[in-house]
Design brief:
By secondary structure, the chain is of the alpha/beta class. Helix content is 38%, strand content 21%. Strands 2-1-5-4-3-6-7 form a seven-stranded mixed sheet. A hairpin with an 8-residue loop joins β1 and β2. α2 crosses α5. The longest helix is centred in the first third of the chain and has 23 residues. It is globular, with a radius of gyration of 18 Å. 33% of the residues are buried.
């Protein structure tokens, strides 16, 4: 009977580990193959402080990318902005650093509302809109705020939801820089 419980316990650990791999974007290199690269998505950018009107492709080709998903109605997203600003100041030149909203800019929410929120919370880096939820879906995002660090080959190396300190964000980005 004890052997059966041991085997059941080991099987459970395997299932949970597999579920964790799926939830975070892949299996760590130490356990096997790296996760598959994310298919790039081109999004419209928002003309705001530190940003520009135009487009951005995520993940960036041949460059690590950090993506922060936010919404203007999300209190924790606003709370996290100082940590994002500090992380951007520390690593912004080493990665494509971009915040993405899934709000339907220009329809449900005006671009002016996005820009006002961005200025109020001292955003000073690239901001884009994923109104089709294509990137949101490809990166397996399940809530706000959510962060993804993607290496130069397009593989997710860190994925987490919720608020983070600047040190946690930098540590996540460092995983994509290795």
């Amino acid at each position: 009977m004890r052997r059966r419980h041991l085997l059941a316990g080991l099987a459970s650990v395997g299932v949970l580990g597999g579920a964790g791999a799926v939830a975070t974007g892949g299996v760590p290199d130490a356990l096997g193959d790296a996760p598959e690269p994310v298919e790039p998505v081109t999004l419209d950018t928002v003309d705001a402080p530190g940003s520009r009107d135009g487009e951005v492709t995520i993940p960036a080709p041949d460059r690590p990318t950090f993506v922060d998903f936010f919404a203007t109605w999300c209190g924790p997203c606003a709370d996290q902005m100082p940590a994002l600003a500090e992380a951007h100041d520390r690593l912004g030149d080493e990665v494509l650093f971009v915040s993405v909203t899934t709000q339907n800019v220009g329809d449900v929410v005006s671009e002016e509302t996005i820009v006002d929120w961005w200025q109020k919370h001292d955003g000073d880096w690239l901001i884009a809109a994923d109104t089709s939820l294509e990137l949101f879906t490809r990166l397996g995002v399940d809530g706000f705020p959510s962060a993804r660090a993607i290496d130069a080959t397009g593989r997710i190396r860190w994925a987490d939801s919720g608020t983070h300190t600047a040190d946690e964000i930098v540590a996540g980005i460092d995983q994509a820089l290795d």
